[in-house]
Specification:
single chain, mainly alpha, about 65% helix
């Protein structure tokens, strides 16, 4: 499932952020340990506010976003969430990377995920503190895993910046290794989802919310 249907309308597409960014943002909302209310994540999709032509158009957008959000929740319940088919690292094999900077579908999707994570930072922190209070020995392990996942997301969300920073660190072969590094993205995503589910279990009534079948 995806949001392609609403983006086939030029009027709606012009009003929203890119489909890849929005799908990443909604995934990021769905994977938050304490699932945010719609009034938090619905505005993330809108690029130009105040341009709704009528209630029918607003309903069309809202219904599509709700359906996709519920789809993300169901995918995680079924342990079936994975990178979207378009979220692939493109390398032309010539030694000169065939990517389009921060505008590739993969980069845009990850930008949406990271925006959602940043916006929900307080929720992540609250769940983290509860975990530390109950199982402090878990914290170092989860912290290392979460840092790695977010680092992977950040790298491929803005490859040009990542390459520039690697050069400053003296990692001259970083760009050449990117295709190999990209192979770990699915695992990084799976780890991110797993950590969220684990943190959700420390929140009162949140584990049930996280895994319940959407209605």
């Amino acid at each position: 499932m995806n949001l392609l249907s609403i983006y086939q309308s030029p009027e709606i597409a012009d009003m929203l952020h890119s489909r890849y960014y929005v799908e990443g943002a909604l995934f990021g909302a769905a994977v938050t340990p304490e699932i945010p209310m719609p009034d938090v994540w619905l505005p993330w999709a809108i690029k130009h506010h105040g341009q709704m032509q009528n209630n029918q158009q607003a309903d069309t957008i809202t219904d599509a976003l709700f359906d996709y959000f519920k789809y993300c929740l169901q995918q995680m319940k079924d342990d079936a969430q994975c990178l979207p088919s378009y979220a692939v690292f493109e390398d032309d094999g010539s030694g000169s990377l065939g990517f389009s900077g921060a505008s590739s579908p993969l980069s845009q999707w990850l930008q949406g995920v990271l925006m959602a994570h940043s916006s929900m930072e307080a929720i992540w922190q609250n769940a983290w503190q509860l975990m530390q209070a109950k199982d402090p020995e878990q914290a170092p392990v989860l912290a290392k895993k979460l840092k790695h996942s977010l680092g992977m997301f950040s790298t491929f969300a803005d490859l040009a910046l990542a390459i520039e920073q690697a050069k400053k660190r003296g990692q001259a072969d970083f760009e050449r290794k990117l295709p190999l590094i990209a192979l770990s993205l699915p695992e990084a995503l799976s780890t991110y989802i797993s950590i969220s589910g684990e943190l959700a279990s420390y929140l009162p009534n949140q584990f049930e919310t996280f895994v319940q079948k959407p209605v």
